[in-house]
Amino acid sequence: NVKNGGMAFGIKSEVAFNVVKEVKKVCKKPLMVKLSPNAEDIVDMALKCEEAGADCLSLVNTFKAMAIDIKRKAPVFQNITAGLSGPCIKPIALRMVYEVCKSVHIPVIGMGGIDTYEDALEFIMAGAYAVQVGSSNFKNPYTCKEIVEGLQAYMEREGLNDLSEIRGII
Known about the structure:
- The chain has one domain (13-160): TIM Barrel.
- Helices cover 39% and strands 15% of the residues.
- It has helices at residues 13-26, 42-52, 90-101, 117-125, 136-139, 143-158, and strands spanning 32-35, 56-59, 63-66, 68-69, 74-75, 81-84, 108-110, 130-131.
- It has a four-stranded parallel β-sheet with strand order 1-2-7-8, covered by helices on one side.
């Protein structure tokens, strides 16, 4: 959407409903829909996507943000705004995942600022079926391996056999 002038797509529930419904007519595989945190109402968006036939939800994508170069007196980004990701969005992403998980009956994949196994655990305890790691991979290509090892060690320490034992406990 940056190439299309930053066109806002996926922020209106009815538009998402129609897109998911049409895609489901031709899609032969399970359909995972990635939700924007910029949606007017993330829970309504999730419910509409579920109603339209989404098999799974993934949230959140980047937050619309901007930065200004004070020396050049101009936007940092050519498109003026860009997507904000990384650890700074985790508390907001976690809240959105929690709210959506409490509202839908399909799996939710949580993401947004996950750097450590503790971050991943927070999303799972909030109800996420699984997690995705994005930005952290750029600064540490071993992030996912470290998260898996951390989760395994945590489960061993806590006497857990499966993450389902703590999924959605909040």
